[in-house]
Structure formats: structure tokens, C-alpha cells
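Example 3.
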Amino acid sequence: MQRAEIETIAYLARLDLTEAEIPVYQASLARILELAGELNRADVAGVAPMAHPLPGLAQRLRADEVTERDAHERYQLNAPRVEAGLYLVPKVIE
Amino acid sequence: MGSDWETVIGLEIHAQLATRSKIFSGSPTAYGAPPNTQANLVDLGYPGVLPVLNAEAVRMAIKFGLAIGARIATHSVFARKNYFYPDLPKGYQISQYELPIVAHGALEILLDDGARKRVGITRAHLEEDAGKSLHEGLARWTGIDLNRAGTPLLEIVSEPDLRSAREAIAYMKKVHTLVRYLEICDGNMQEGSFRCDANVSVRRRGATQLGTRAEIKNVNSFRFVERAIQYEVARQIELIESGGKVVQETRLYDPDRGETRSMRTKEEANDYRYFPDPDLLPLAVPRSLIEEVGRSLPELPDQKAERLASQYGLTEYDASVLTASRELASYYEEVVRETRGDPKLAANWVMGELAAALNRDGLDIGRSRLPPAGLARLLARIADATISGKIAKEVFEAMWASGRDADAIIAERGLTQITDTSAIERVIEEVLAKNPGQLAEYRSGKDKLFGFFVGQVMKATQGKANPGQVNELLRRKLSS
């Protein structure tokens, strides 16, 4: 694992790594990749990609019906900040 | 600028599916509810909840796929698209990636020169919408409303087959018409039910490689899409011609300034790390369902336009205008049925006076002040020569304003056309007597004055004289 890769992954995961943590992640992620790399050595010719570990099962569907009622006041009890029914977060600038 | 360059455009259209409940939960999808009153635990991404797919959303996607002649996947997969944004509570959007439900379709568009062009549709996949961020009036904060989170979307991705802003708009309108015919989306652009991202690039004419593209995000009207593309094309050409390079980026259209602006820097290139969502099993669509949905398809816009053209002898263009919506087409057909008259006359009135009046009052055809039968009765009075086409416009306006019947207005205002030959002849004689100078000029060869006399006769009769008869009688009189 290159240092730059660690930085990119940390950015995508919004992790603010300290200088001391970078080599730790570098080493442990490398070990994880090595383990996953064993899969690359398996012969998968003719094996259909699997999207789910439960074979032969398909997604169950629900009827298009409204079954939920408004409970936003309850859901918002543990929100750090609420105003006029809105969840407030630090200003997002586009 | 111009002919040295070729524009290449692909559109990603997001159509909100008109289901009652959300794609993965039983929350309502109605527009305009107070903030967060339609977001439950699944929509909010609470731990331990599981998404359950809405059968109607699947049906609607199949409907669209069949209408564009696409392949419907009997096996498709939902994937997580990972990114962080406050209006996306789970930190990922459930979408489809490698195996979308709809692939390899196409639509035909009518170009300005009357030619037809096939536009490929790479794929259409199901996904959930995000919430909304509100930035105004909250000083240091951004407000998050998650009512929209989890609303079903069909993302319709075109091939880069479009070569101008005009073509892009024609295609976008075609999709807009189609989803409304299919009743899978209300098409309301102001409410964001139908949105569009445009991928725009330019290349030297004759080049085979695509140029670097910019993605213009979320433009919410046909006019803005056209302007945004025009601006972007000019910007890219100017940039390259002055020695610069187009960078792949996301740009935002600013309608007030009429320009696009860079939104995300290239270093932050999207890296969504898609993977199959373990919360959802693969979606199996049985053949029997595809066949059942196929049988439920309505007459599609192209089929309707073709039928109108051949059944009523309309031009291809008129037929395409009249089939822009199902409501407009059925209004037109009802007018024709009621008058049992001239379908071309009916087409002209529906596309002319009626469309103008609707436009003026900001109404759609469903809320026309004039029902089809009312317009039919007016057209019948033109057909039986009770009134002229010109007077009919006056009657139309009065009907539109008052909601009264054509015959009542014609009778009340004494607008019945003068078809009595002797009455018209009398007026002609008066006009000629009043204008001896012009008469002498006409007789000495100034043929153009014929129109002057017609005008004077029409004026003297307040437009009520039958124009055909006036022409004929005047000609006879002047040549005698």
C-alpha cells in the first residue's frame, strides 16, 4: 500500500488520520488485501458472479401502500439540532 | 466557432415514479408536505432497518422499458453507491449498477428539418432519491428535509447520440411525453419530478474519439437545458481554441447569469465504490409479469401520431404537436368527433387559438375553459358558413372569457355572416362610389388595388361578409 492510497481511502471514508496512524493503516490494510487477494488466485472461469450469499432466493416485493405515519417529532428527539421541522447540519457549501 | 466542431451530448434523466409509497418503505411520496413528516426509520437510515422493494416501482420500470423497445432483465441487482452528503442519511444511495432492470432501448426524435433520428438509451435503472438541503435563512446552518429521501426514481441514461442542444431538447421532450403517457411520472419539472443532467463534450469534426466531457447537473426546465448546453459548448470550444484543455468535472447552471460554473474540483473525482447491497436480494422479474405489463401499455405517442396523421390527413409535424400529451390528443379527437367536420380545421384551432389561450392563462389542456364540444360547435359555424374564420376568432375569445355557447354569442352580437349576394353587391357599389380615385387607378392597370376594395367591403360589413363571395362578386363587378 502506498501512502497516497491510504490518504485517498481515508478521505473517501472521511477519516482524519494522524501522521502516526498512517503507517498503522498501511500495514493492516495491506494484510487485509493480501487475504482478499487469495480470491484472485481462485479459478472462477464459468462461475456466475454472485450478488447475494443466499442462493436461489429472490427479492420479495411489497404492495404500493402507505403504511407509515408521521412521527418526526419522536425521530428528532435525538437529533443534535432541529428547527422548523428541519434537521440542522453545519452549513454545506456547493 | 461552429462548423469545425462537433458537439456530443448524452442525457441522464431522473424521473420520479408516481407511486403512492416510497421505493423501499411505506412512507408517502406526496409533494409539499411539511419537512420530515414523510420520512420514517427506513428513510432516515436507522440501524437495524431493512428495505423492502415496492412492486409498483418495478412494474413502472418494466413499462418504460417495453415502451422503448428495451431488454428487461429477468435478473437485476441493487447496489450501494457510497458518498457522504447530509441529505443522504445512510451514507449510500441504493441504486443499480452492473445489472440494471432496463437496457438497450431507443427512442426516435423528430428534427427541425423533419428528419427522424434514433437515440439510443443505454439503460434505465431503479434507485432512491435523496433528501433536500435548504440553505436559505438559516445563517450558519443547512436545513435537511428528508421527505424526498427514498422516493423512487428511474434514471434514464442515453447514449452520447445527441449532436446539438436542439436535439437534446427534442429527446428530453420525447421522454417527458412518454413517461406521462405511461402514467409512471407526473413530469412536473418545477417540483423536480423530472430532472436532467447533461454530459457535454466537443471534438473536431471527423474525430472518432470523444472529447473530455463536463457534466451539467440538475437543470429543471427545457429552456435552461438548452441554454446551459449552448453555453457549455461555446465555453469548451473557446477553451480549446485558446490552447486550454477541458477538464472532466461537474458544473452547475446558473439561470440568472446564463452560465455554467465548476462545482467539484477534479481532484475529488467521484469514487462511489459500488457493491451489491447485502440488504436486498437480486430482483427476479418473471416473464409472465413482463407479458402482463406489455398488455397494459396504452397507445404510445409515436403510434398515436402515426394514426392521427393517417386517419385525419394531418402532417407529421401537426400530428406530433397534437400528441404531445394524451390529454391534448384526446381533446383534439373529441373535437373532430363532435364536429364530424374538417380534421385539419380542428387541428389548426387546437394548435392555434386554443393553445394560445391556454398559454396566455397558464392552463394545461385538462383545465381548458372551453370543452371540446364547445369548440366543435364554433367550428361547425365556420363549416356551415354562418361566420367567417376571422369572426370566429372574436367569438372564440368571447366564449373563452364567458364560458357561453358559440351560437348565443353569434346571435347576441349579430355576427352572422352576410351571404346574401344582393346585400354584398349593394355594399360593393357603395364602396366603389366612395372611392372613385382608386377605381380609376385600378381600371388603368393598378391590380394591387383589388385588395384595397376587398378590405373596404369587409370593413363596411364589420367583417361579416363572406370573404369568398366578396372576392368573386367584386371581381365580376370590376371586370364588367
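Chain B has a mean pLDDT of 92. The two ends of chain B are 62 Å apart (CA to CA).
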